[in-house]
What does this fold into?
Amino acid sequence: MKFICIWLLSVAVALAQKKLEVVATLPDYGAITAAIGGDRVNVATLARGTEDAHFVDAKPSFVRILNKANLLIEGGAELEVGWLPPLVAGARNRAIVPGGPGNLALAQFVQLLDVPSGPVDRSMGDVHPLGNPHFNLDPLNGKAMATAIADKLAALAPSNAQFFRANQKKFEQELDRKIAEWKKLMEPLKGTKVITYHKSFDYFLRRFGLELAGTIEPKPGIEPSPTHINGLIPRAKSDGVKFIIVEPNRPRRTPEYVAGGAGAKLLVLPVLVGGNERAKTYIDLFDYNVRQITGAR
Amino acid sequence: MQQLKKQLQEMQKRLEALEKQQSDVPAVQQTAPTQESKSSPLSVRSGKAFMDIGLVGTFDVGTSSASDIEGGTQLGGHDPNQRGFTVQGVEASFAGAVDPYFRANANITFSVDSSGDSFLELEEAFMETISLPWNLQLRGGQYLTEFGRHNPTHLHAWNFVDVPLVNGRFLGPDGLRNPGARLSWLMPTPFFSEALFGVQDSQGETATGFRSSGHSHGEEEDEGLPFAFRHPDNDRGVQEIGDLLFSARYSASVELTEAQTLLFGASAAFGPNANGGEDAGDTDTQIYGADLTWKWKSPRHNAGFPFVLWQTEAMVRRYEAGRFDWDENGNDLPDDGEVLNGGSPAVLAGETLVDYGFYTQLLYGFRKSWVAGLRFDYLWGEEADYERLNLTLDGEPVGRDLSRADRWRISPNLTWYPSEFSRIRLQYNYDDRQGVGRDHSIWLQFEFVLGAHAAHKF
It folds into this structure.
């Protein structure tokens, strides 16, 4: 009897200690979750930081990972619409389906930019009708994400709520400190005009007061045409564009050509955690990008 | 009093903080829907509407040296089917969650055949459970049998303008699809593996190789001899469990590296065929398949490019042909349109026919929006007794059964995607058919997508 009691107790303890299985679609969500969840959650990330988040392969192995998940953290706002839905459908895990208790779509917790105000159709390119989903690049959104993630983790594992809250606070304090530092570094660059490849850096630019003067893509998801580029270069020149910013996975030839023509500097900046070997954490990602921009001045 | 005042001030501060928090948060949820309803009374975007609605139109223009394009060089019911223009299909798709228990999917294809007649097909319409215990999933309705890699796909997902020959010959011009139900089990292995078991009706035009009447839309009736030179006759419906079509599939996937994925599958389909008729007893068909898919996608891909995809499928079919007497009117005399053996109506003995086939294809997405492809098809059958009988039809020797004879084809192609929602594809086919000869075909396909664009499966 005593033995059974001890056994039951140890099972109960084991169950209470069972780590939450969290799947993050993007490494940024994974990195924040790891910072908050510490050793009480297991975090798996589907996309790699070097990948184009819209076009991740729907690998069958992801179905297995999603099947075992207690929580799926996704960006939402159609960021993963090209590859995530069939994986979630195949995972047979009711917890993580949209609206399920184990589904967290972070776009709900931030203010999205570029929400179309008029009618939208695809002659405008692959416009995101819900707004620009690359919101991870505003560090203040990092705080909003951390709050949402800590709330969700605490709801799913109430016995660890205090632990998660403490980590969230620590994460936010460090982020606050860094945001102040980055803002100071970026202060002299306020109003600097830049051109990006895709509308991936809008949140970053807005936070630090840089101005988007154009994109290399004529329309979202549409390949640059010679007409567009030939119009862009003189405009960039007369606007005094300083930087051409591209993601690591974009072809370089056209951006180099534009940079050369406009007398601007080409910067290759990661847009996700893990986008290069230096951007290991969410804070590293901004550290790297801020230093690249300020160093290139 | 002082204390009370202090408390009040503190409360006010808290209230302000709370208000601030609230105004920070829900901005998106509030603005997005109202703005959308302005522009679109019927929203088809995922996550916003009760179902996703999409329309894909696929067309072709081209030419071929073959005189029998439809059903001859081109085995698919939605392949380019004539010189000039072809409507390959205009497919409406509807998908969404039904309720907390089921999701559903329907694909309805509108098309125009080579004689200009419009037709409508229910490609698929099925419901699927969202969460059964033990990692099971149940599907019911009309669906494409999950046999191999190509059969369950729709026109829009094909990497070539036409179906692989082995699919056309063994699983039929429209693919193997019928009403039924299937259970799938995600297995608790340390790698992805899934087992499927399905039951479907075995009769109807989309059950080629089983109890199909032998003709489907687009094929002209009574042209040439029927399969195995016997008229199909088995329309008894379902009288016992053996009258149904059973299928099974196992697939497993591993990641070789971060950028390389391998998928292996084995499939089988069993069911009665239409070759028996009343006197011949029960005749069955068994089809077995194996498939291998290897994909490399650059870890630094730009919109999914560059990538390399290699996919191969091989199948074996064991078909029991029933005894068949060409003297169908029972007058014992050689009549027009009857197959004769030495001057009198042929009597074909029952025998088992064994056929093989495979295709292998390589796709290389060499730069954003551009894919080069190469496919090789090969089919062969073991010569059967009825093909050695020196049979004649209208005075001419019939020789080998062309629906079982050896043939091969090689198809290079090039695809350009102006955006994710349109596609232009140029393909050349070199066909070599035993008993017919060699043919060249060239097809230019163009496709558009309106509305919801289903996510890409692996």
Observations:
- Confidence is low (pLDDT under 50) at residues 20-47 of chain B.
- Chain B has one domain: 46-451.
- The CA atoms of residues 65 and 354 of chain B lie 30 Å apart.
- Chain B touches chain A through 57 residues (CB under 8 Å).
